Write a sequence for this structure.
């Protein structure tokens, strides 16, 4: 059974193309059933997020399966197949499996090591199970991929070091204040960065959110998301006394928080420290505020230093993750190869048994009246000859099953012995040279025999 993936992501296509190829969660089951009805598709799963759409299929024949996926994407998007190919990538078997393992481990994400993709792939697989669009091969593939993603995060800690400004702000807050449980935050400005930072602070224990913005209506909208309180901008410093953390990100072209105002606030706080995070560019908070006792002020440069250091940690963890992926990949390939070769070995032994029984019957008819002992000796001799003759082919096939050429040796054995293997059909001894060239171009020029064997598994 072949495995292939055709996909588009943030590196291969602009947003306007990704939008057309995206699959909304509520309609995915219907699209899975549509794809399953296309020629040559024995199983399929669709992974669709804001940054990627990937179609994983188990095609009966490579060319037919790929052609069906291109047509399916064209039907979905309304784009010509030629245009879709300009923005998509295609991997088959070994490369397709490695790609999925890297995706679920966060190594193919915009933010290296991000955790969300693991849950998204798991959800995509669950939807495919509900739609009954998978098969044994895809089930095993996605189950092992999810296991791999969990193992990578557990053993490498790749997702433990924040690599975005909002997450870095949380890490600095923890370093400055210790536990964030029960803490309060004052958000100055109601833009996207302020909101994201507040989201992450609340997720880490902050219990009270106050929002102040020049547009009071916008402050109300943001405060409602956290069950917080909105205050008018000219009342900002009256409420700063209640906050443990101040997040400021306005569009002002000048300082909106100045030393004299913070000195007044700190007098009211009676020495209670305050953490201030300025994520605005230009800065909202006068850097002289940092000199006031009890104030811990951080700006974008401080946060970026944390991000850079953590990104380097994630890169080191990614190297370790690649090693884990190779281990899991080899384990899956062993399973896949063994699953393919066992029916061939069974058919070969069955053929040997049929020949033995046929020739024994013929010999016994010619020899006439034999006693039981003589029949047993002749039967034992015939069994020994068949077993010894098939011993090396069977042992070698089991060994070759674990090699990159495993499918090739299996197919050749089926052709040489004219074996009829239930569930498998070998049309010939492989793809024609022009077909191999097509597959190679599809998979980036790297193609092995197991990827090009013109073999299909019949349901």
């Amino acid at each position: 059974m072949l495995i292939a993936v055709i996909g588009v992501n943030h590196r291969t296509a602009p947003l306007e193309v990704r939008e057309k190829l995206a699959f909304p969660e509520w309609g995915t089951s219907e699209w899975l059933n549509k794809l399953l009805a296309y020629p040559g598709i024995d199983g399929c799963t669709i992974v669709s997020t804001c940054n990627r759409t990937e179609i994983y299929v188990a095609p009966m024949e490579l060319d037919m399966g790929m052609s069906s996926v291109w047509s399916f994407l064209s039907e979905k998007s309304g784009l010509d197949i030629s245009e879709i190919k300009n923005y998509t990538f295609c991997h088959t078997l070994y490369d397709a499996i490695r790609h999925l393992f890297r995706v679920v481990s966060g190594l193919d994400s915009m933010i290296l090591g991000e955790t969300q993709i693991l849950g998204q792939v798991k959800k995509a697989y669950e939807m495919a199970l509900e739609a009954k669009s998978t098969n044994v091969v895809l089930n095993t593939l996605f189950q092992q991929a999810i296991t791999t993603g969990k193992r990578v995060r557990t053993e490498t800690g790749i997702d433990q070091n924040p690599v975005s400004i909002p997450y870095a702000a949380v890490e600095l807050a923890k370093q400055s204040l210790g536990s964030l449980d029960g803490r309060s935050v004052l958000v100055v400005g109601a833009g996207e960065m302020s909101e994201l930072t507040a989201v992450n602070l609340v997720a880490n224990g902050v219990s009270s959110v106050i929002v102040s913005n020049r547009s009071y209506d916008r402050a109300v909208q943001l405060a409602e998301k956290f069950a917080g309180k909105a205050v008018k901008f000219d009342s900002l410093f009256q409420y700063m006394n209640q906050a443990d953390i101040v997040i400021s990100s306005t569009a002002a072209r000048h300082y909106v928080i100045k030393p004299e105002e913070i000195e007044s606030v700190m007098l009211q706080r009676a020495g209670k420290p305050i953490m201030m995070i300025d994520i605005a560019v230009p800065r909202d908070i006068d850097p002289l505020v940092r000199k006031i006792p009890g104030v811990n002020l951080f700006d974008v440069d401080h946060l970026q230093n944390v991000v850079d250091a953590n990104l380097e940690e994630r890169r080191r963890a990614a190297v370790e993750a690649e090693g884990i992926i190779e281990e899991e990949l080899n384990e899956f390939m062993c399973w896949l190869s063994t699953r393919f070769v066992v029916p061939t070995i069974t058919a070969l032994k069955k053929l040997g048994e049929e020949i033995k029984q046929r020739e024994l019957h013929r010999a016994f008819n010619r020899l006439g009246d034999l006693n039981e002992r003589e029949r047993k000796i002749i039967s034992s001799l015939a069994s020994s000859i068949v077993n010894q003759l098939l011993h090396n082919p069977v042992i070698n096939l089991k060994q070759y099953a674990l090699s990159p050429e495993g499918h090739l040796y299996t197919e050749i054995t089926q052709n040489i012995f004219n074996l009829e293997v239930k569930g498998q059909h070998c049309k010939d001894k492989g793809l024609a040279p022009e077909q191999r060239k097509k597959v190679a171009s599809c998979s980036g020029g790297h193609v092995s025999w197991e990827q090009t064997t013109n073999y299909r598994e019949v349901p």
